[in-house]
Amino acid sequence: MSKPVLFVTLLDYGAGNVRSVRNAIRHLGFDIKDVQSPEDILNANRLIFPGVGAFAAAMDVLNKTGMAEALCAYIENDRPFLGICLGLQLLFESSEENGPVNGLGLIPGGVGRFDSSNGFRVPHIGWNALQVYKDSDILDDIGNHHVYFVHSYRAMPSNDNKEWVSSTCNYGDKFIASIRRGNVHAVQFHPEKSGDVGLSVLRRFLYPKSHVTKKPTQGKASTLAKRVIACLDVRTNDKGDLVVTKGDQYDVREHTKENEVRNLGKPVELAGQYYKDGADEVSFLNITGFRDFPLGDLPMLKVLRYTSENVFVPLTVGGGIRDFTDANGRYYSSLEVASEYFRSGADKISIGSDAVYAAEEYLKTGVKTGKSSLEQISRVYGNQAVVVSIDPRRVYINSPNDVEFKAIRVTNPGPKGEEYAWYQCTVNGGREGRPIGAYELAKAVEELGAGEILLNCIDCDGIDDQKCVLQSRLHNLNHSMGGWPPILLGVIGGCPAIQ
User: Fold this and answer.
1) 185 an active-site residue?
2) The total number of structural domains that make up the chain
3) Which residues form the Glutamine amidotransferase domain (predicted)?
4) What is the percent of the chain with per-residue pLDDT over 90, rounded to a whole number?
5) Is 495 a catalytic residue?
6) Residues of the chain with pLDDT > 70: what percent?
7) Stronger pLDDT, 483 or 425, i.e. the higher one
8) The pTM is what?
9) Catalytic-labelled residue, pool 93, 97, 137, 192
């Protein structure tokens, strides 16, 4: 193995979770030099651009700081470069995301949104294999493994850019999964979130080796892997320590004389163990800590920071993320709140009650104000960074005409012989029902900017997973919503979430 580069230059323009990339680089034994000026780009020995967020916002920063010109010069001189996700897309001529918006123009072609008319849900979130077309050094032997994607927009291969394309992936259509020309590499997937396989991609870029011609590996490019997601309900116990807990419909206290909070372990340790056991994602749902002061929950921020140091799969955090005013009268937007959690290691933000209120207002007026937490966060970080957690409760009715919401026929009649039920959304930890159904809420929040839905089933809370048939019913209810965000089925305190 050749002598490693001691320092890696990182282009972080200030949006999204770059902490994961930082931790992966340090995990592999390298120090990081941050780009502070265009000159830092031009003087780099090896440059990593972990682009996150939205295309227009990224280009705006690059252009205003003079970094766009420096980045183009660096790449045109065939200097060692690795772009990640948006760091690949920005190399193209333009994007239709909030646009059209001009890109760096280094690679022919534009970036467009996935076509949802064919039934594929957008954004594309999941683990896919690659179809590798040519030797790419960093993709050595990766063709038969899955890597993690999370994006709504993609670049398409064409005759004009075929000399750049090193691999593709198939999600409805064939799109560019990676590019390589000379020392310039970029990948659409997230190596820092793809477990050991992703770490091997970063390692090969950081530890360059002599070029050896190999026969490209052929992966199962159309295969989308099933995802196992560890959903951890987190709250403080009576001693003030954060613990992972579970219970029956939000009752997380032991039925003992002490009546203590049920303690299943420490969040960081359990997340690490789930990662070692093969979990593809970890979700922290803080069920009480954010009610009054989201940014005051320093222990949860530390959980994210410590977890992201050794867990290289996506991390989601949720609980009370909204606009608020603190005790001193200072106003904080939901975007400011979310930004702090992104900087602490979160890849996605889960919004619950605030999403319900925003959806109710949107359905009432039909107007997108741009001020809701969903709209604010998705506009800056992309809708793939926004998860809406829906906590529905079953309400029995005699006829689907009894309510204005989507209803289904039940297998087992209700207490008064009712043959139908609708699923009423709740807020405040399931304590308050709202006049909106799960179907209507899912439809509204997708239009407001949600990229993923975590569908919890309060009625199955604490129940054996074989009894959680409501999950299948709700999934079937929404199965016809082609092009909608991926639906994750979960049970609070019950079954693990799956896709």
Assistant:
1) no
2) 2
3) 10-205
4) 40
5) no
6) 81
7) 425
8) 0.71
9) 192
d(CA 241, CA 213): 54
What is the extent of the structural domain holding 13?
7-223
Phi, psi angle pair for 90, to nearest 5°: -65, -15
**Candidate list 280, 391, 446, 461, residue with the active-site label:** 391
Catalytic one among 85, 231, 460, 468? 85
Q: Are residues 431 and 414 in the same domain?
A: yes
pLDDT digits (tens, 9 = 90+) for 83-129: 999 999 999 999 998 879 999 999 999 999 998 887 777 788 878 88
The answer to whether residues 51 and 136 belong to one domain is yes
State how far the alpha carbon of 141 is from the alpha carbons of 10, 58, 163, 350, in Å.
Answer: 26, 32, 21, 35
Tell how far CA 231 is from the center of its chain: 14
Across 330-451, the runs of DSSP E, i.e. the strands, are: 331-332, 348-351, 386-390, 392-397, 407-409, 420-427, 432-437
Q: Is 233 designated active site?
A: yes
Considering the domain architecture, whether residues 457 and 322 belong to the same structural domain is answered as yes
Known catalytic residue: 418? no
Residue 1 lies in a domain: no
Instruction: Give the residue from 2, 79, 13, 82 showing the smallest Cα distance to 42.
Output: 79
Question: 75 in a domain, yes or no?
Answer: yes
309 counts as catalytic:
no
Q: Per the residue annotation, which of 124, 146, 151, 190 is the catalytic one?
A: 190
- Is 480 a residue whose pLDDT tops 70? no
Catalytic pick among 233, 280, 354, 461? 233
**339/458 same-domain check:** yes
Of the candidates 122, 222, 116, the residue with the CA atom closest to the CA atom of residue 169? 222
